[in-house]
Amino acid sequence: MLKKERHIYILDKVQSEGRALVSELTKELKVKEDTIRKDMQELSAKGLIKRVHGGALSIVNDKVDFNTRIDQNAKVKEELVKLAVPILEKADVLFIDGGTTNLKLAEKLPQSYKGRVLTNSPSVAFALSNHPHVQIYVIGGEFNKNSHVNTGSFAIKEIERIHVELCVLGISSIDSNLGITVPLFEESLLKSQLIKQSSQILSVVTKEKLEKVSTFFVEKSNALDYLVTEKSVPANIIDAYKQNGIEVLQ
């Protein structure tokens, strides 16, 4: 098999499965491990995959802004958040993190819900403004124009002073082994603090964010209590999250 053909094969595998292992590829392509490692080094140098010990992971496109992402997989997000709503209704104090999926969730929160919602997302707060029984508290800080959330040391200080029953954590990339990662350092600090201040953590994650890795580490995947995702996610990936003690809803 030619190098170009191997590269295409590796990229397809990483894209479809979220990762590719050197040991598996040597058998599938009938080449030496050194050949696969060199292929992965070249692909990594081009920014097409992320090299890790024993293989490679898919890279998340972290540069797409909020206004673009809000229309991506809109119908899928709407179906997924329906599964999360019954869990949210059981909590009196919620924190809804930023993100386009979490915005959909806020929009679907029933008008009958009576509770307190804290958020670092002005968009989420606005979506809840017509709910008659919801108390809304917006965490302050520096407004990130790309992600539409308030971040920075001021936001983290505020979060340190609260406790919530259930946090709906926004996730851009998660790997069952490597955990939750984000593109910005300040974002990693904020999400890490949110996890510390919350009794339970729920995340609604579309399948393209699973088994992906970004730059800055937040927490291991077992920080989640609930993971809501699509039915089309391969069973072996779902099993990996279940083995981490996470309740998966599809």
From TrEMBL:
Q: Which SMART domains match?
A: DeoRC, HTH_DEOR
Taxonomically, the superkingdom here is Bacteria
**PROSITE patterns linked to this entry:** HTH_DEOR_2 (PS51000)
**One function term, GO molecular function aspect:** DNA-binding transcription factor activity
- Could you list the residue ranges that cross the membrane? none
Show where the HTH deoR-type domain sits.
3-58
Query: Which UniProt keywords are given for this protein, alphabetically ordered?
Result: Repressor, Transcription, Transcription regulation
What task does this protein carry out?
Repressor of the lactose catabolism operon. Galactose-6-phosphate is the inducer.
Q: Return the protein name.
A: Lactose phosphotransferase system repressor
